[in-house]
Amino acid sequence: MDISVIRKTTNETIYLKRFSNLRTKQFLVEQNEGLLVNYTNCNSNEAPEFEYQYTVLGHRICGPILKRVGYEQKIIQQIREVSRSGNCSYHLIPSNAENIGMETLFISSTPKKTIEVTIDDDEKNIQRGELIVVRNWTSVDLLNSFEVESSARGGSKTLEEIVAISTTSSCSCDISRITLFPEEMVELHTPGFPDFLCPSARCETLILLSERNETEEFEQRVLVRVDAVAWNTSELRLSSGTQEILFNEKTFSRLSTNFLLDYQNVKVTYTTTQDFRVGTEGQFAVQVMNVKIRKACDCSLFGQKKFVEDWSQKISIPSDCEVMFCDWIISASAKKRPREITIQIDNAHDEDQMFIWNSKIMEKYPSDYLDQPRKVYINDSSSDTHIFFRRNSSGPTSIVNVSWKTLHDVDCETFTKISLTKNPKAFISPNYPMGYAHWGSCTLLLTAPKNYYITVFINELELEAAHYIGFWDGTSSGAPKLAKFTGTEYNREFSSTGNNVFVEFISYGRSKKRGYHYIAYAVRSPNATEEMETFEETTTDSPLSTTEKPVPPSLFVESVVMVLAEEIVKDVCNMCLFFWNLAFYVIVIVPIGLAVFFFGRVIVKKFNRPIPFSLEWPSFLKKKSRSSDMEMLIR
Q1: For site-directed labelling of 601, which of 2, 62, 476, 628 has its Cα 20 to 30 A away?
Q2: Which CATH class is domain 169-294?
Q3: Mean pLDDT, residues 552-565
Q4: Quick check: 498 pLDDT over 80?
Q5: Do residues 482 and 493 lie in contact, with contact meaning Cβ atoms separated by under 8 Å?
Q6: pLDDT, mean of residues 131-144
Q7: What DSSP string runs through 224-271?
Q8: What digits encode the pLDDT tens for the residues 327-379?
Q9: What is the chain's Cα-based Rg?
Q10: Which class would CATH give 299-406?
Q11: What's the pTM?
């Protein structure tokens, strides 16, 4: 007897299976589908009997028998609770009829279990495993058997979810070995690139470098570029000599950056788990290039690739450098404290670029972003942070400024006063560029010297509609308003009339928006005759702090904050002492007094002597005794 599924909407007939000895069997089909049964023995004693009924799919353990699988993940078996043993049969066919025999089928379950399939209705072509891969497939029959032991808790069992996907993507690895000569480049991609994450992949490529051929003027290096989106089931590892860099969801989220390695062979290793998915997540594109660099332009810093303490440096970029690459790795904070990174390029070249990234952020800055200071917070103590500078062609003599320092926190102060000079300073929202989480108001007073006014440039602003940052032309919010921003703004500039600008940031809640980044600096008034006064700048723990040099962590907390903290602690201690004394009198002294009183009363009664203590009741509670002029005594 042959069983087929017929589809009313497309007038299709899909052959399922031939049964030679079929006793009791259930077939479930979708809406607008039916079953076609062909049998040759029409003897009434041997003819099959049929029953048809409508049912609700959501209540069934097994789903419809026919499953069309394409380039989107298809659920074959739903998660179900079962109370007795049984099995579910499924017939899988490609959803795209034009690609029949040209695609690869992947089947797996979560959690992992052994799956058994029959390929092309051939009983001899059976495949078993936790991951089923069928290349050039046309049809597959899947039998999901399950047993419920009587001793199982509650007499039930949970069926695992089984999913499948069919794709034309190749899951083969790139070349495994290649020799790279000077100025040559090799590009490697993950299996299934760019939009299919292949399961159980392991690819390893060894890149051999040609013999070192350095001169007095040039030296050789290895430049690596990585573009990727993280996923929890894929991992990339770069190994070169003693250096090893690991890329996974713990070290980055989205990545587009470069690395400069010493001149040694490079091994690129890529691995995935048994999970598969459609999308760019988990994909890597790796470029490895054999480059020559002028020795005067070498900024690889191989002597110290990883930094633990706060650090600051100015690096000169000579004008005759055709290429120059600098990279730094900031070690994850052992104290789990945030850091503030500041970068800037003086006299930047048009093609200069800088990158800052870790497991939470990926910031890429072109040259026109770097002529003024750019600042970010690093509030992730679980992964290293990478900074990279790249120049691809000769240009002007430039200075790269890089610094970072450890902070107490990344929230903003209730009030902070900052003195400005002609050099621009960057100001950022709490936790920038990650989502900010601030409740309330924080204010800032920007002050310039006499005969100077203040210019503010909004680089980037992304706030919730209910949150805002405002600027006033004076020392408080009562002064004339210069600007007030909410929502999204970029590249906005305005100036004060005097030498003070009052800034207020209002936020009541947590947001995933980036926050704000702006710069401010003092500008000499046109009619000014006096020179700029010299003064000391105010520094605090605030996100609005603009200290250019790293500060020892022990000095981060400002003395005013410490005084306030001491006063708060003193008040709390006095309050605790008051309640302690009160509790002592209530719990100890009062019970002792009552005990002495009643014990003395008992003793006096025993000797029939009056207690030398009388209690006069209020007039409305007085009781008359035999002698009206005698007050009631407590005996």
Answers
A1: 628
A2: mainly beta
A3: 31
A4: yes
A5: no
A6: 93
A7: EEEEEE--TTEEEEEEETTEEEEESTTT-SEEEEEEEE-SS-EEEEEE
A8: 889 998 777 889 999 999 999 999 999 999 998 899 999 999 999 999 999 98
A9: 39
A10: mainly beta
A11: 0.69
Distance CA(288)–CA(528), nearest Å, equals 56
Spatial contact of 174 and 193, defined as CB atoms under 8 Å apart: no
Residue 102 has pLDDT above 50, yes or no: yes
Residue where the block lists tokens 């210019």: 455
Long-range (24+ apart) CB contacts under 8 A made by 596-604 are: none
Alpha carbon distance 404, 503 (integer Å): 25
| CA–CA dist 497, 394 (Å, integer) | 42
384: phi > 0 → left, psi -120 to 50 → alpha, else beta; which? beta
Q: What is the CATH number of domain 415-546?
A: 2.60.120.290
Sole residue written with tokens 């049998």: 39
C-alpha distance from residue 110 to each of 76, 80, 127, 323 (Å): 12, 13, 18, 49
pLDDT (0 to 100) of residue 525: 93
User: What is the C-alpha separation between 532 and 450, in angstroms, rounded?
Assistant: 7
In the chain, % of residues over pLDDT 90: 50
How confident is residue 633, by pLDDT bands cut at 50, 70 and 90? very low
Asked if the domains at 169-294 and 299-406 fall in one CATH topology, the answer is: yes
Distance, in Å, from the CA atom of 174 to the CA atom of 178, rounded to the nearest integer, reads 11
Q: Could you tell me the two tokens for 367?
A: 């040259």
Q: Which residues is 291 bridged to in the sheet?
A: 221
Query: What is the CB neighbour count within 10 angstroms for residue 295?
Result: 11
State which amino acid sits at residue 631. Answer: E
Q: Domain locations in the chain?
A: 2-167, 169-294, 299-406, 415-546
The DSSP annotation for 464-485 comes to -TT-EEEEESSSSTTSPEEEEE
